[in-house]
């Protein structure tokens, strides 16, 4: 086991740990540890809601999930010699649930969860069709996930960090706040909101002196979106063996990591769509001096996925176009066409006996592929979603004999949107 | 070789063939042939511009490409016993360039082309950055494509039909015309246009009696977009061995096929972004009686990709978010985030010596994957594009030693947007 | 289609073609054509028995298969500038059944065959357990093979040439004759024989002057085994996209090709175990000057398989050790342990209702993998055989519910060993 | 973490642990623990030489490796309700090096080793060409192995147990002793020996009463070979996610496991050819009642490999035939043809600057594939070995520019055969 440079005790809350992490992006949050290029080390990660979501059969916790407190990030970690303009090379050597703990109240202790967020508390990709809150608990057996709330499926996890990135410079942070503020201003009362402004009350700012928290918290960026620094990209393919290259914006790079997922489908469509968990990640870092200019990487991560992703040779795929459910034609809207492809998959799975929300939770959590198949054929973009057929206990393919009927079991817990 | 039920002579134009195909969707276009469930047969296909694009080093033909004449479809083919509400099962047994002809003036005779369309003639996914017309000619050697216009790469084709679908019913056609007309009406003079209305002058309507062409042509749908019937989905994964399920809207299903591609990247981003060619396709059809209701497939195709796609184990991937190049924050716009990911890939490849348009043409033509990685992390969606590293003759990975410099050669022919 | 440099008319026997091929290895057989490094060309190939095996339900033809006449090779082809000591680079650009002919009396016209040879006529890998002759006819639908003689399975072909190689020098030929003669001499009457000595009567020697046939035929090597020059290696992975490197032993390399297989399992265990067919192969050649010494390749081919092999993600595997069926312990005998693994697979498949010979024919023809898993654990080697589960129409996996029972249909035709 | 039912303390020798395992097969060795069908549990495993091999730069320890003491097995584990005739279903949920220990003197603490055994101490697959002892130490970084003794390569481990199996019945044990004794008797003084007879002095027999050790030790089977019960099969594909079915010969099945490998090539050709290590394995067991008869599995394991093996899309392969290095023709000897293929690979790698023993060690340890390509083409079988090209830091492919030259570094430690 590599040296643990950020350790978490499963019996303590995130804010009570020996070393305090953070839940906002800001250049003034000091590194909790510093590593050298070439170093290999382990980082513990807390699940993004710090234990608020329980391993039970109620969705009340999802309904009331404390979105102001996320994400509970480990870091920042400084890298000796890193300077703005460099590329930070991060190798994900290993990543998994909390080691040696396979039962307990904390997601990552042998289990994880997927949530569909209620429309009034964040919403989701299909929030108009699914305004209420739902939850699925997934149990881990080796690398395989199964759920009492979504029967009939079992799949190998594509374990990855949902969120990793470098600290923004002050100038970059200002740019974020300006552009996101401008967007919010176009419809400030929208539900769900268009974006999340800085919020000081629930900000956690690591080792920053206490007298600075109010000021910094009022300007620090929320961690929900991915941005130039990487961030909450939720790219399911950042699994073991992946090498990622991040732009460096501050001396030392100051990168952070968190929001581990045991698995996730492309898009993380239920919002809390991966299988959320705490755990560990083993990393190795390096620097390409001046790499941002040399390789033209001014923003966003580039990466090379690892070689040990679960392999599936058979898929069942659904397509969608950019026409709304109401029949309105939109112009080349890939977001919409992916929504329609997902809805088609849900309609299909419902014919096998799944409740629509069970199907939706499955698409959020399982290693499904979402592709931008056609983006130029005016006025309709075409998006596609691919489900590995091997994850089903039964034959999911269309045939003359009609769909097999599953027993949906106890179903997915639900809590009404308030 | 299965029986050819739609034969094309490479020496004749599409309209001069013994059997006339069509280039519009309309329920009244009569089948050119009828097959039974279980039948296996071959269909010849003409490239979508019917020979207007030449194997030369000028992009003048792309600049003036006759968009009103497309797509030159083979069919319709009736299926005995198919009725509205059924699912039409189509197996792609084989598909390839024009058999036994590997040189000649017609795309598909040993070569194909990729075009970036000029802004005033259709445009493309990145038309604001690339307003002019460009062309790349690809030579086929076995299943491998190479180009004198894009040096340093070679890749196995993921050969597929860009367009396949069933005939719309009159009611469905009316719905299309209404909703697309409504969209056009919001900005009728837009360049490029929002959508393409019916157009009778260049309509080709197969065996429809001549006195009906004016009326039918004035209401028949253009073939550019994918719609409920499948159509121009440009899904690169519909390659050999794929089984597709189409909704049936008229008696006999009346399905048509065309727009073959030797290869294509996800999105077909240069508009004419696959490697366009004529060729053949061997099909087998079957029916799932009442399958639309049984399986909840009311629209759009569902499919199971084949098992012989080219395999790549290493990829270099780029990510993008929904912030415009001008810095404006957009709300969860996956179309935009994919544009940004593509632009990042182009910026990167430019550092190796490629002209930006060469990189763009490559992304359109090569088997790159485009994924909707994050679609819920407000306000930024995250899209990713994956390039197989093995298609480059040199090491494309970032490293401390900096990018290898290619010789860009004669470059991609260009014609200025008029 | 590349230029055809060796053309075969399906209506004529191998010896009656315009250009005569050969069925023996000898340095004096003159090239039928000469190509340059970099050239791309097509070669037609006749199935190895020149039409003796029929598409019917009798195994009488397999029982009496004319082994003295094989293999009907296309070539030799000279390569300009190739000299002894070079490596001949051969790219398999494409390979398939007889183009544009999908029915007819010749294997390759839409069908192929697998035979279990009788013990008195060649035998097979499991000849003691299967002394009689059996046949299975396979029908090609696109790249998929199915058989009325082996129901319940369908698989994508891994199409390849069973035999390709360069001409031996006179010295190398003498070495072959010496060592194989020495082996035969140890048991000259063995049935099946240990090896096949030169045989002049049925030798076909291409363009060699008629007055030389008797002499050359009496010293030319039979084509059954693989040897230093490549030859009948029956490596199933030499499929489309493969690059092979052969040692060059004579000026011009003089390479030949034949024995095409639509598919084959590792080992080609039924002797005539691939799915035998005629067809075409498109090749490109090049030379690495002095490559034998530079790369230490003094004999046998080295190769890089292509990227479009059928992909299977689930396999059912069987293991065997080097103990005979009679219980005798042999010392690290991987040949025996593979026989035992194959017999275990046959025993297993028999429980699903297959006749043992049906199972045996399937293992010979389908894309099964045979691996040398353990070769040092005295006294038992361990070999394993892997069957892709997706090729079965039913669930082939072991479970508490017991094996599904197939209808074995008409079974595999049989002819008693005489 | 599942419950540990067999725990090992890294600071104690195998014989000093709280629970004692075994190193011989015998039906009277009592279970150390009993599990129920469906149970999930963890077993610690000690590396096969119990710490005798050091992480240093000398091969003296390999030269003198104590072969009489192996293998240090964990178990036996009884399964409630298992009876002779059943199939024991074993799911490998996870397997890896010693958790939370990445440095220390014991293989599995962040490192492992590969040894070429000296001819007088066990020998190896190519012992005539490599009579001396050699060693390579591999360091683990995440799932990747690298070695100071074999530079220029890095590969993902295909982690698996080399040895797992059920206890033999008394009758089966007697059969083993008889047949192996008969073999030994044919050449009792052979070096290396043909097989290993029972040996009581170094036998470790778990919880068997002390007064029984002499008798049982004198008849218990050595663990070197694979046999009807599974045993030391060294099948590299038994990695995470694999389901294995073992015949049951005694009440409770009494299965044992050990000999973990971080990686291994097909054949484990250097004898101690995998990357040897201690570690843990998480298992789940089940029973198919009467499965041996139902599925025709009278002996040897059948299995379904997992879905997370490292993926490689490009390979460089070598072939060999059954002619000895001295030029003697052998009859269809796949063991020999695989030796020749391995030697060809070694010859090739030597041209890049590797010492032959470095190449040999690499073939033993890396995830190379060994296939029985042709087994019927008299008199030559054809075996092939496939090396993933991506594991090399440099371009390993043949080309006109000749082989890249590596720096072989300090080389592999050697100790002369005594």
Write a structural description:
Four copies of one chain form a homotetramer. Chain A is α+β, with helices and mostly antiparallel strands and 418 residues long. The first copy, chain A, folds into two domains: 4-304, Jelly Rolls, CATH 2.60.120; 315-415. Helix content of chain A is 14%, strand content 27%. Chain A contains six helices and 21 strands. The first copy, chain A, has helices at residues 60-63, 170-185, 213-219, 291-294, 334-350, 356-365, and strands at residues 4-6, 33-35, 40-45, 74-79, 87-97, 111-116, 133-141, 144-147, 155-156, 160-166, 226-227, 230-231, 243-247, 255-261, 271-276, 279-288, 302-304, 315-321, 369-374, 382-388, 414-415. In chain A, strands 1-3-16-5-13-17 form a six-stranded mixed beta sheet, with no helix packed on it. The first copy, chain A, has a six-stranded mixed beta sheet with strand order 2-4-14-10-12-11, with no helix packed on it. In chain A, strands 6, 7, 8, 9, 15 and 21 form a six-stranded antiparallel beta sheet that branches. In chain A, α5 (334-350) crosses α6 (356-365). The longest helix of chain A has 17 residues, at 334-350. Chain A is globular and about 65 Å long. β17 (302-304) of chain A pairs antiparallel with β18 (315-321) of chain B, so a sheet runs across the interface. Chains A, B, C, D: It comes from Arthrobacter alpinus. Chains A, B, C, D: One of its GO terms (molecular function) is hydrolase activity, acting on carbon-nitrogen (but not peptide) bonds, in linear amides. Chains A, B, C, D: This is Formamidase.
């Amino acid at each position: 086991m590599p040296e643990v440079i950020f350790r978490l005790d499963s019996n303590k809350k995130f804010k009570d740990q020996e070393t305090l992490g953070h839940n906002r992006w800001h250049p003034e949050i000091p590194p909790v540890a510093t590593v050298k290029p070439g170093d290999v080390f382990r980082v513990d990660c807390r699940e993004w809601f710090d234990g608020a979501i329980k391993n039970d059969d109620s969705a009340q916790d999802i309904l009331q999930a404390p979105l102001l407190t996320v994400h509970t990030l480990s870091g920042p970690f400084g890298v000796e010699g890193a300077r703005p303009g460099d590329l930070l090379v991060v190798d994900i050597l290993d990543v998994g649930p909390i080691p040696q703990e396979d039962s307990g109240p904390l997601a990552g202790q042998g289990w994880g969860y997927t949530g569909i967020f209620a429309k009034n508390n964040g919403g989701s990709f299909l929030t108009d069709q699914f305004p209420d809150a739902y939850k699925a608990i997934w149990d881990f057996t080796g690398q395989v996930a199964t759920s009492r709330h979504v029967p009939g499926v079992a799949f190998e996890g594509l374990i990855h960090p949902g969120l990793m990135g470098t600290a923004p410079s002050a100038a970059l942070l200002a740019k974020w706040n300006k552009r996101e503020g401008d967007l919010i201003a176009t419809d400030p009362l929208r539900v769900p909101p268009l974006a999340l402004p800085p919020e000081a009350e629930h900000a956690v700012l690591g080792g920053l002196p206490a007298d600075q928290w109010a000021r910094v918290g009022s300007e620090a960026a929320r961690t929900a979106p991915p941005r130039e620094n990487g961030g909450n990209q939720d790219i399911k393919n950042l699994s073991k063996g992946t090498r990622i290259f991040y732009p460096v914006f501050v001396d030392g790079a100051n990168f952070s990591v968190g929001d581990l997922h045991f698995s996730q489908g492309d898009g993380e469509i239920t919002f809390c769509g991966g299988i959320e968990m705490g755990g560990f990640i083993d990393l190795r870092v390096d620097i390409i001096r001046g790499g941002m200019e040399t390789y033209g990487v001014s923003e966003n991560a580039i990466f090379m996925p690892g070689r040990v992703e679960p392999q599936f040779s058979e898929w069942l795929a659904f397509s969608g176009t950019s026409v709304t459910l109401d029949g309105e034609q939109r112009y080349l809207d890939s977001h919409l066409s992916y929504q329609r492809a997902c809805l088609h998959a849900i309609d299909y799975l419902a014919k096998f006996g799944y409740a629509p929300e069970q199907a939706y939770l499955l698409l959020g959590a399982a290693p499904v592929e979402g592709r931008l198949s056609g983006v130029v054929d005016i006025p309709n973009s075409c998006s596609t979603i691919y489900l590995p057929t091997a994850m089903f206990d039964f034959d999911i393919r269309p045939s003359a004999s009609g769909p097999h009927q599953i027993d949906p079991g106890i179903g997915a817990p639900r809590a009404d949107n308030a």
